[in-house]
Specification:
The chain has 327 residues and is mainly α. It has twelve helices and no strands. It starts with a helix and ends with a helix.
Length: 327
């Protein structure tokens, strides 16, 4: 456990010492704080309909992309030009803000990897160095993120085929068996591929490699350290689970005095809207949750970055291998 203990300790010191990294962590958390094990749980949900594809499906179902909609837009543009221009401006503004947020998410991931690596070797770093790295490496890292998302959507889409066939043909047993077989093959493949992408991003940001070399070296590093990668994921997942449990526990504990305060205020200050108090409490809880999520994202990316540097420079031996080697 020494390998992981040292890495996690160093990552936590980096996270706590360089609190400006929490700004990047806040946006990097949107990539998911659950780690690679999210794949196993997410795969039980409506896989191919998650995220952006779900939005496209909604727009398609209401006829947003139909010729009738385009004709209606044209009619409105002529009959009520002011309203239509305001609508177009609003949609453009939303798209610009959404694009900026998307850029900030990827840039934050790059900045955390770059600045964590700088901290590891004792090199000075700040927000500016993180953003400079993000500007330099945005497109390669975006490409790697899109690759892993595309592969995940395609393979999760394949998993939906047995379910769809069972509904059409009514043979639940055969197609359920096929689903289990495909699940046991494809989900671990997606899991392993996500490890490769994680290491490839580190090669791109830290080693300044192009996408092809980063993927090749990420694959080789993962193959040489499969058990270490899985063990690291399990450790970080358990940390996430513990933090989530503590947040829920804290919420339940605070709910009692909050209910008491609401009751007192409602009796003393009848003019105060109780919904306003409840809404305020929920907002505060969401802000606190986002704050914890930012710290977690910073800690996790720092941990993976430190692990990457450790494996690249010194190598490592998994805990399972060390246990069996003692016997």
């Amino acid at each position: 456990m020494t390998l992981y203990r040292n890495i996690l300790k160093s990552a936590w010191i980096n996270t706590w010492k360089n609190k400006y990294l929490w700004f990047f962590g806040l946006f990097a958390a949107l990539l998911g704080n659950g780690g690679e094990l999210e794949i196993f749980f997410r795969s039980f949900n409506d896989r191919i309909n998650d995220g952006f594809l779900a939005e496209l499906k909604v727009f398609s179902s209401i006829g947003f992309f139909s010729l009738k909609t385009l004709r209606n837009i044209g009619v409105l543009l002529v009959s009520d030009t002011g309203t239509m221009l305001l609508l177009i401006f609003t949609l453009t503004l939303v798209l610009v803000l959404g694009g900026f947020l998307f850029w900030l998410v990827i840039s934050s991931q790059i900045a955390l990897v770059n600045n964590s690596a700088s901290d590891k070797i004792g090199k000075k770093h700040n927000i500016q160095t993180g953003l400079d790295s993000a500007l330099k490496k945005f497109w390669p890292v975006l490409g790697l993120n899109l690759i892993v998302k595309l592969v995940s959507y395609i393979l999760f889409g394949i998993l939906t085929i047995p379910i769809a066939m069972s509904l059409v043909r009514g043979d639940m047993f055969s197609y359920s068996f096929l689903f289990v077989v495909l699940y046991l093959i494809l989900v671990p493949f997606i899991l392993f591929f996500s490890f490769i992408i994680k290491y490839a991003i580190a090669y791109t940001v830290i080693k300044d490699e192009n996408i092809y070399d980063a993927l090749k070296n990420g694959f080789n590093l993962f193959i040489s350290n499969i058990l270490i990668s899985i063990e690291m994921t399990l450790i970080l997942f358990l940390i996430n689970l513990f933090v989530a449990f503590m947040l829920i526990l804290m919420f339940l504990v605070l709910a009692v005095p909050l209910f008491f305060v609401i009751t007192v205020f409602s009796s003393i200050f009848a003019h105060i809207n109780l919904l306003f108090i409840i809404f305020g409490a929920i907002i505060l809880f969401l802000i606190f949750t986002a704050f914890i999520g930012a710290i977690l994202a910073t800690f996790q990316i720092s941990s993976w970055t430190y692990l990457f540097i450790e494996l690249e420079t010194k190598g490592g031996v998994s805990k399972i291998k060390r246990i069996f080697s003692k016997k």
